[in-house]
Amino acid sequence: MSQTAKAVVALGKGRPVEVRDVIVPDPGPGEVTVRVQASGVCHTDLHYRDGVIGDKFPYLLGHEASGVVDRIGPGVHNVAPGDFVILNWRAVCGRCRPCRRGNPTACVDDFVADQQMTLATGEPLGAALGIGAFSELTLVHSGQCTPVDPRVDPAVAGLLGCGVMSGLGAAMNTGGVTRGDSVAVIGVGGVGGAAVAGAKLAGATRIIAVDVDERKLAHAKGFGATDLVDARKTDDVVAAIRALTDGLGADVVIDAAGFPETWRQAFYSRALGGTFVLVARPDAGMRLEMPLLDTFLRGGVYKTSWYGDCLPSRDFPALVDLHLQGNLPLERFVTERISLADVEEAFVSMRRGDVLRSVVEMG
Fold first, then answer.
1. Residues 18 and 138 both lie in one domain
2. DSSP readout, 151-203?
3. How far apart are alpha carbons 146 and 353 in whole angstroms?
4. Does the keyword Magnesium feature in the UniProt annotation (predicted)?
5. What does the angle CA 41 – CA 43 – CA 49 come to, to the nearest 5 degrees?
6. Domain, as residue range, for 28
């Protein structure tokens, strides 16, 4: 039997979101319903609301979440009712060519629930990133559920479902940061701050945080940055990073801002033969012009980090354990705890740069 839940819905492009009743069907084969306990407010949710991602309104927003499995459908074996899980918007199949070749982070399959949740009127809802977690209850594919230690704060755990995992993974998985490395992170909001934390966890000895916002730089210091560069007060970010790395540049540079100018800064502040990671999602209209010879002469590696190149079944439990052991301060990312009715105001705070993460907690 289907269930009714309160949820945050985007009804049209740019319109303020509304709390509505939604109908959540019973899980079918391979599907699971999850009682959401907490869900972070991510830029991706704002992109859905503003029509930057998709134009098939209405959308059920929210995707960075944790909760407890409510019901399971036929053929579900990886979770059981009562399991505490983090929802991951990317599930791996184990059967496609990348999976068969031992590279599951590049899985080309796509796992989401076959059924759609609907408004009370029967109008189908598009679920943000196949999850739709600004809801008391949501329907997902069982592969989108990763069980973790239930002792963790749900508000903290949910952030691993997207932004924080993206930043941690950009440093630890994509960038391959290791002991003794120098690392520069350009743009230290939620994702960039997590990249700083990931670099520290991986053993980097010099971690340079770059931003135009003193508040974000202060957060980055709390995550482990050894040096701060205020780009508003620095004529040459590249020179500043090089001066802090014996004139050589950083071994790994992570662009978590996603602008053509920060791309150039990251490229030229990288050590010869070093690694450059782009983790921010640039806007579709952005263009970049670079001397091709420079890309040849500087050598090294350029990578794009998608979801931190994570494997949820491997990374989520391990990162939660590190947090519970006191080695990963995930709680620092939670700026405020809000209700479903506060999501629109949380978008405003996000635009102003007032928060790292607003987290919706269900009553």
1. yes
2. TS-HHHHHGGGTHHHHHHHIIIIIS---TT-EEEEE--SHHHHHHHHHHHHHT
3. 30
4. no
5. 90
6. 3-161+329-361
Stretch (H or E) spanning 122: none
Nearest to 219 by CA among 345, 349, 335: 335
Tokens of 352: 């102003």
Q: Which residues contact 77 (CB under 8 A, 6 or more apart)?
A: none
**Does 108 share its domain with 134?**
yes
pLDDT tens digits for range 68-100: 999 999 999 999 999 999 999 988 887 889 888
Residues 301 and 280 placed together within one structural domain of the fold: yes
Inside any domain, residue 318: no
Percentage of residues in the chain having pLDDT higher than 70:
100
Between CA 321 and CA 315 the distance in angstroms is 10
279-289 pLDDT per residue, tens = 998 988 999 99
64 and 204: one domain? no
- 246: part of which helix (H) or strand (E)? none
Domain count, the chain: 2
Q: What is the mean pLDDT of residues 176-181?
A: 97
27 and 134 assigned to the same domain: yes
Considering only residues 214 and 283, tell me which one the structure prediction assigns the higher pLDDT: 214
Establish if 100 belongs to a structural domain. yes
pTM of the model: 0.94
Q: If we measure between CA atoms, which residue out of 316, 23, 35 comes closest to residue 169?
A: 316
Give the CATH number of the domain where residue 260 resides. 3.40.50.720
What number of other Cβ atoms are within 10 A of residue 288's Cβ?
Answer: 11
Task: Assess contact for 183 and 206: CB atoms under 8 A.
Answer: yes
Residue 290, classed as helix, strand or coil, is: coil
Nearest to 22 by CA among 133, 129, 141, 121: 121
Could you tell me if residue 173 is inside a domain? yes
